[in-house]
Amino acid sequence: MDLKKIIKNLRKKIEDNYYEYRDEYERDNMFKFIDDFIDDNNTSDLEKAFFLFLNQFPSDHKQYFVKPREMVLVPDVYDMNVPGIEYEIDFAIYGGSLFNPVKVAIECDGLRSHGQKHNNKDRRKNVNLQASGWIVMRFGSNEIHEELLKFENDKTYICDFLNYIENVIQQKTKLINWRSYIKEEFRSMLTGYKYGYVTCKYCGHKQICKLNHKKHSCKQCGKKFQRDIHPSEKIVYDYNGLLYFEY
Fold first, then answer.
1. CB-neighbour burial class of residue 91 (10 A; exposed 0-12, middle 13-18, buried 19+)
2. Which of the chain's termini has less CB crowding within 10 Å, N or C?
3. Domains in the chain: boundaries
């Protein structure tokens, strides 16, 4: 595997992804941040390539950013007699907000020398980071090599690690967007209605509707029908044609 070629191609892919990015100042700072890291002689090619993988689509306006080699000071739950313990995180990913942050620690075993530490030290690091609110995700160097090999064979390949990380952040932040709004539980929280599936009595079509309403129009056949009410729905009031549920 030609890591230097992969680094060059990934760097170009990131730059090409910026073609519609309007904030020139932020763009220049982003590239300086990336180039300073990949030009560092003390950084391995595998580490550089993995870092570029994590920044594969910078213009997507993601709700997080990647900080390599982040130093953190956290309490040591194994020894509460000391004020704290310092750790270096291979790649720290910050998302959420200042008052409700999501912190993901990416640890790459075997990537650099400290990744070869004894398992007990890694486990202690995991516990201390998790106790301080970090989500710890560990990847082995073999896993990283496999991902890079996929990219080497297909320049359009999107790193699976990005999907893992984004799923974690999305699950923790639960940002309001179209994907969350179409889910009945989130829409219920936002609007005050209770949403759920109802079945048309005429054609059997299932659709998400306001369960507070008895009468509905089928989006499939267009006929109006009155939905069945299940005893488990825990209705508190039936007032002016609206159903109110126990919360």
1. buried
2. C
3. 3-175, 181-245
